[in-house]
Amino acid sequence: MVNIESLKRQHEEIGEIINNIRNLVAEGRLEAKANELAIMINTLAGKLKIHLSTEDKFMYPELLNSQSEEVRNTARAYIDEMGTISETFMAYKERFNTRSKISASPDSFASESDRVFSVIEKRIDREESHYIKFYRDK
């Protein structure tokens, strides 16, 4: 059984890193902050990997075995969606995971960060408001 509070804590940690990156981007002069930003991106990647692993190992199997067809269908939809989100984030990470990569394309970094982070934040909001409720009610 998955610990819901642990998942929520992971969401908070992921959100905090995203906010920190957004704040640095808003300050400008990304080339000067590129090393710090690269470290944050790699830290975020690690947090997301742990979070996804927790969901894959503990949450999804239980939901897929639910008596409720609605819960099973929702779990499958979330699994499919997360695969796409994960691929999007990994492409972003590979493009901007070092100081030199961020410094080479600061404008692209800023716009792609906003786009990718918005997708992650929407997913977290949906998990918090909908999916975790399903898990509790399964």
Explain what this protein looks like in three dimensions.
Pfam families: Hemerythrin (PF01814). Residues 4-133 form the Hemerythrin-like domain. With 138 residues, the chain is mostly helical. The chain has one domain (4-137). It has 5 helices and no strands. Helix 1 (4-27) runs antiparallel to helix 5 (106-137) and helix 3 (69-96) runs antiparallel to helix 5 (106-137). The model has no long low-confidence stretch (mean pLDDT 92).
Short description:
It holds the Pfam family Hemerythrin. Residues 4-133 form the Hemerythrin-like domain. With 138 residues, this protein is mainly α.
- Supply the helix-strand structural class: mainly alpha
Strand content: under 5%
Overall radius of gyration: 16 Å
Distance between the ends: 12 Å
Largest β sheet strand count, sense and barrel closure = none
Helical fraction equals over 70%
Unreliable segments of 5+ consecutive residues: none
**What series of H and E elements makes up the topology?**
HHHHH
Quick one: overall form?
elongated
What is the number of independent domains? Answer: 1
- The number of helical elements comes to 5
* Count of β-strands: 0
On the 0-100 scale, what is the average pLDDT? 92
Descriptors:
138 residues, mainly alpha, Hemerythrin HHE cation binding domain-containing protein, Hemerythrin-like
Please specify the SSE layout and strand pairing.
Elements: H1 4-27, H2 30-64, H3 69-96, H4 99-104, H5 106-137
Helix pairs in contact: 1-2, 1-5, 2-3, 3-5
